[in-house]
Write a structure and sequence with these properties.
Radius of gyration: 17 Å
Oligomer: single chain
Pathway: Carbohydrate degradation; pentose phosphate pathway; D-ribose 5-phosphate from D-ribulose 5-phosphate (non-oxidative stage): step 1/1
Distance between the termini: 24 Å
Protein name: Ribose-5-phosphate isomerase A
Keywords: Isomerase
Strand content: 15-25%
Family: Belongs to the ribose 5-phosphate isomerase family.
Structural class: alpha/beta
Shape: globular
Bound molecules: ribulose-5-phosphate
Function: Catalyzes the reversible conversion of ribose-5-phosphate to ribulose 5-phosphate.
Largest sheet: 6 strands, mixed
Strand order of the largest sheet: 2-1-3-6-12-13
Helix content: 25-40%
Order of helices and strands: HEHEHEEEHEEHEEHEEEE
């Protein structure tokens, strides 16, 4: 938790007066949003946030960050977490089931910064299964496609195990184990399956990764 806090605060200190900020989702961006709200209150800077989930929307509201939308503003800088980061700065995201809106907001930003602790840095993507958001009517047919592509899909279940996780968009999530040789190719192919809304591979859109380690902060570009 301490490393997540460290990188969250580090990223919040990069935000400048007047910025429109993409607000990522998860336990790491929680600290970023909290600190940003803190800076707005203390420094009286003018910032607007574009949330990437209901979770970050409510957190932003509670942190008194003025909220806007992509219809009204372009995003200057987006800050988000990740589940895996490879040496080319490709990501797997979606551990919090928010990757569809995250990808829309993060990709649109002039600058996209990822904040992670060192445990998320990998030599090759794929230990973490790829989250794939699926329209409920296509649950069975998408599963067949994923298996035909060499994937091992598991429908993500709610904590009480009494039904699937439902995303902010009203859809389900498959967590799919893949042997990932070419992240860009897999990202593109997954999105051609009818009924797939978006997948959690983010290839080649990151500008900078802030990594928290016990020894200090490392920047990957
Ligand atoms: C949510 C995400 C998160 O950014 C990712 O799962 C990392 O989460 P955390 O900061 O809690 O480790 O992609 O969909």
């Amino acid at each position: 938790m301490e490393l997540k806090r460290k990188v969250g605060y580090e990223a919040a200190n990069l935000i400048k007066d007047g910025d429109v900020v993409g607000l990522g989702t998860g336990s790491t961006t929680h600290y970023f949003i909290e600190k940003l709200g803190n800076r707005i209150e203390i420094e009286e800077i003018s910032i607007m946030g574009v949330p990437t989930s209901y979770q970050s929307f409510y957190l932003a509201m509670n942190s008194k960050i003025p909220i806007t939308t992509l219809d009204e503003h372009n995003v200057d800088i987006a800050v988000d977490g990740a589940d895996e980061v490879d040496p080319e700065l490709n990501l797997i995201k979606g551990g919090g089931a928010a990757h569809t809106l995250e990808k829309i907001v993060d990709e649109s930003a002039k600058q996209f910064i990822v904040i992670v602790d060192g445990s998320k840095i990998v030599t090759e993507l794929g230990s973490f299964p790829v989250p794939v958001e699926v329209i409920p009517h296509a649950t069975r047919t998408v599963k067949d496609h994923l298996i035909a592509m060499g994937g091992l899909p598991t429908l993500r279940m709610a904590e009480r195990k009494d039904g699937p996780v439902v995303t902010d968009n009203g859809n389900f999530i498959y967590d799919v184990k893949f042997d990932i040789k070419n992240p860009k190719k897999l990202e593109t192919e997954l999105n051609t399956i009818p009924g797939v809304v978006e997948n959690g591979i983010f290839s080649q859109i990151v500008d900078q990764v802030i990594v928290g380690r016990d020894s200090g902060i490392e920047i990957l570009k």
